[in-house]
Amino acid sequence: MRPHTPNPGSDSFDDDDYPAYTMGRAAEMTGTTAGFLRALGDQGLITPLRSEGGHRRFSRYQLRIAMRARDLVDQGTPVEAACRIVILEDQLEEALRINEQLRHDAGDPKPTADT
To answer: Which residues does 48 contact at the CB level (< 8 Å), separation at least 6?
Structure first.
């Protein structure tokens, strides 16, 4: 979802976006299969970076997203729908964050349940 932008001077292993994990390790860490991770990529949920040899590499951020999709699939949601749900949840969270920031910048009070 979000591209990796190197952070000069930071430790790569502290960087959530650093593509540190191979396909096999990513599948092991998420309790899924390589095929499942490829399906998430096919649906546009995650886009792993490629090593110089062309192998997929995943970041911790991408693995957290994969786990969210896996949890939905484990509950019986089809992979395609799980990917769409995760994408929409993230878009809603970002829209709410932007709305809150705009309200704050405009000096408006936080909306209540009555409004």
So the answer is: 19, 23, 26, 37, 41, 56, 57, 58, 62
Q: Which domains does the chain have, with CATH numbers?
A: 14-106 (1.10.1660.10)
**What tokens appear for 114 in the block?**
């009555």
- What pTM did the predictor assign? 0.77
**Cα angle: 49, vertex 29, 32; to 5 degrees:** 85
CA distance 17 to 59: 5
Per residue in 84-104, pLDDT (tens digit) is 999 999 999 999 999 999 999
Yes or no: say if 70 and 31 are a contact pair by the CB < 8 Å rule: yes
